[in-house]
Amino acid sequence: MVAECTISPSARPSNWLQGRPVQFVADRGLRFRKLFAISKAHFLPNTDPSTKIPMERLPITTASGEEMRADQADTLTRRLGDIVKYSLMLLVMLVACFFLAKKLEDISWVGVQQALFSIPPQNIAFAFILTTANFCLLTGYDLIAVRYLQKKVPVRRVMAGAVIGYALSNVFGWLLGGTAVRYRLYRRWGFSPVEIIAFVMILSITFWLGMFLLAGIAFTVLPIKLPEDSRGLLVLDHHVWGWIFLSVVAAYLICSALIRKPIRWKTYCYTLPPLRLSIMQLIVSAGDFVLASAVLYVLLPPNLTGPDQINFSTVLVSYLTAMILVVMTHVPGGAGVLEAVLVTMLPPEAKVPIVAAIVMFRVIYYLIPAAVAGIMWIYMEAAWKLSRKETPQLEGQ
Questions:
Q1: Phi and psi angles of residue 5, each rounded to the nearest 5 degrees, phi first
Q2: Cβ-contact 373, 167 below 8 angstroms
Q3: What distance in Å separates the CA atoms of residue 347 and residue 305, rounded to the nearest whole number?
Q4: How far apart are CA 242 and CA 220, in angstroms?
Q5: What are the CA-CA distances from residue 332 to residues 43, 199, 274, 328, 369 (Å)?
Q6: The pLDDT value given to residue 89
Q7: Residue ranges of the chain with per-residue pLDDT less than 50
Q8: What's the Rg (C-alpha) of the chain?
């Protein structure tokens, strides 16, 4: 019976916790889970053979009864945690949908359909152009993470991984889409499980940095026109939030410039990116949110947009607020949450055209890229499996 495994120092890869920007000093339970991921990957047919660790180099010991019971309790705790997590996600989605239904009970869906067909074709074409530019920019997230980890991956692979990961995560969420896809792709491209954890962590930091920067600038400088009943969502005055967000960004940049030693917290050891890479994080993430907000903005009726009506700053802040709630709740695709926040924070007198713009935004920015990403994913999987079948034949010859 195998209950616990450990990797001897001589059997570890040369880059295992040595000389890498992100290091993990794990306790016994976390080390066991990481080893389980590695051992599982060893037997999966979709794992790059060059990344396998020979099983004869993994010393196996039999754990005591107490350790076995501890591992069983830990497994049960994780399963219960997953049940609670997904139950809360479902609950949040249902509450958001109920709230959205209450907000929209007084609108005519025939009017929404008419508003959809009244969106100018040139605006729809411009929205497609902005969406394409946005997904090209999204590649920067993954390029920053690859550079931070000092890995060499062809740019075409990084672009494919970024487009597939972000397009699927927009629809299925980070937990169900983007992270799972990236794990499968980057394991195949030679990344260790620990490096993939670090990779996803850098993506998250980049995401929040750009959001804080844009929200800080919008709340402190740009003109924002929010309905009175939506100001309660902010709790504090929007100027206060703006200075808080900008302070976080400034603190991160200062730490990146001055602190070059690893920062230790619990079982983790984190080294900040250099200042130049941190600035790139801000530019890529801020550009991402600007382009995404612009897609929604150009889909609004021209007679409702402008400095004296629905300005771009208001749409930007509304979209940022929605994305913060979507990411915090982990609701797949922000279903119900995104719509509820946008309908609440944008002017209520333009509710019908706003709903039409959100529906078109979902189609252009979410569904169509997800369909393209799905085709790319199927093609990559088929090509990889075909190459796996051809490799043994070549070896036999």
A1: -130, 150
A2: yes
A3: 11
A4: 5
A5: 30, 21, 33, 11, 16
A6: 64
A7: 1-63, 394-397
A8: 24
List the one residue out of 120, 124, 126, 131 whose CA is nearest residue 291.
131
pLDDT tens digits, one per residue of 143-179: 999 988 888 888 888 998 889 988 888 887 766 566 7
Q: Which residue has the tokens 């844009």?
A: 214
Question: Do residues 333 and 370 lie in contact, with contact meaning Cβ atoms separated by under 8 Å?
Answer: no
pTM for the whole structure = 0.71
Check residue 235 and give left, alpha or beta (phi > 0: left; psi -120 to 50: alpha).
Answer: left
Maximum CA extent, the chain: 75
What is the C-alpha to C-alpha distance for residues 263 and 269, in angstroms, rounded to an integer? 6
Which string of DSSP letters, residue by residue, matches 78-89?
HHHHHHHHHHHH
Among 115, 131, 113, residue whose Cα is nearest residue 368: 131
Q: Which two tokens stand for residue 257?
A: 């410039």
Amino acid identity of 193? P
User: In the chain, what is the straight-line distance between the N-terminal and C-terminal CA atoms, in Å?
Assistant: 40
Q: How far is it, in rounded angstroms, from Cα 346 to Cα 247?
A: 27
CA distance 90 to 331: 7
Q: Please provide the DSSP assignment of 5-19 as one string.
A: E---GGGS-TTTTSS
Name every residue whose Cβ is closer than 8 Å to that of residue 206 and which is 6 or more positions away in sequence.
141, 144, 145, 281, 284, 285
Spatial distance between the Cα atoms of 253 and 268, rounded to a whole number of angstroms? 21
- H or E segment at 172? helix 155-173
CA distance 319 to 326: 10
Considering Cα of 259, then 262, then 268, then 273, what sign does the dihedral take?
positive
- 336 alpha carbon, distance to own chain's centre: 18
